[in-house]
Each structure stands twice: as structure tokens, then as C-alpha cells.
Amino acid sequence: MSSLVLEEIRHRVAIAGSVTNAITGQGIPGIQVTVTEQNLRTQTREDGSFYLLDLPVGQYELVISGSQLGKYYGTSDPVPVRVADATNGQPIFDSQANIKLQPTQLTGKVTRQDNNQAIAGAILKLHGSSIQTVTDKEGKYLFSELPASTQTLEVTARGFATATKTQTFIAGQEITIDFQLA
Closest Cα to residue 148, out of 75, 79, 98? Predict the structure, then answer.
């Protein structure tokens, strides 16, 4: 004779959200999202979205972790999320769990030393990597999602001497470095 097993009926509520780059809005895949009170975890998908299903009604804190945090992005404080009752029998998705992470960024401008005119088309490279960018018509440039580390930045432009500067990048920080070329 088989025995009868009773299971608790779970609440049909959920948390849905995303983890994105605060500058570009692009989703960040592979970030672990944890509801500490429930010891429940999931990972963000390719588009940065995540879902946590079958939660009891209540107030929770989401904690995010992953190899990209503290390296390419700053960290995030725990995110408070409230899960509400389902009044019509349908799952409730609390979309308040949209987390924006500040990327490590480097911005600046490249100008002529003699007259302070912008230099368009200057090439900026991080030594020892394939990371590079080119200045726009106003001499401005942007690197985003840089690794937190000490890097040497080199700028070259046709008709000008090469210049370098060394900078320590901290995850989630925006740094401005301007160059004047002779």
C-alpha cells in the first residue's frame, strides 16, 4: 500500500528584473542573483534578465555577485523588493528589481599642444591588450567596461609625437584623462 504525501502549496508570486550597464542599458549576462532570505539563486540570461519564481509574499533583499563585479563594473548594495499577493490567481512579477551597474570608464579629449585644437582620428590603446578607440571630430574618446587594474594608455596621431600616461582604474569609477600632443 502506498503512503499519501502532502506537499505545501506554494504561493504563485515572482520577482522579475534585469542587471544592466548603467551607461549603455545593455544587459549583463552571467550575474548571480540571490534572494538571501530564501537561499534561492538564479543567473542573468544573455539579455541580463532574471526570474525568481514561487516566492511567498514578503519583503526580500536581492544580492548580486559575479566575476564581472569589482572588475569591469562597480558593486551594488542589496536591492529591497516586495512580493505582493496574487488577487486574480495569476503570478505577480515585481519589476522593481532592475539593477544598473556603473561600468569602469575612461573619457577624455586629445588636443594640439600649440593651439588647443581638437585632434580627430587619434588612436588610443591600452598597452598589452587589444582594447583601443579613436577620437571623434571634437577630439573626444571613451573606453567603457575597462578592467580594474593599472594600465598604460598610449595615444598616437599622424604628424604628432606619441604620448603615454599610466592610470589605476577602480571598478565602477569614471576617470577623465586629457592629452595634449606636440
Answer: 75
Q: Highest mean pLDDT: which of 22-26, 27-31, 64-68?
A: 27-31
Q: Is residue 145 part of a domain?
A: yes
Confidence of residue 59 (pLDDT cuts 50, 70, 90): confident
Q: What is the DSSP letter of 149?
A: S
Q: Which pairing describes strands 150-156 and 163-168: parallel, antiparallel, or unpaired?
A: antiparallel
Residue type, 24: T
With respect to residue 112, please indicate whether it lies within any of the assigned structural domains: yes
> In the numeric block, which cell numbers belong to residue 90?
495569476
pLDDT(74) > 90: no
- The number of CA neighbours under 13 Å toward the Cβ of 90 is 4
Under 8 Å between Cβ of 168 and 149: yes
Asked which of 101, 116, 150 is the last residue of a domain, the reply is 101
Model's pTM, two decimal places?
Answer: 0.74
* Residue that is last in its domain, among 44, 69, 101: 101
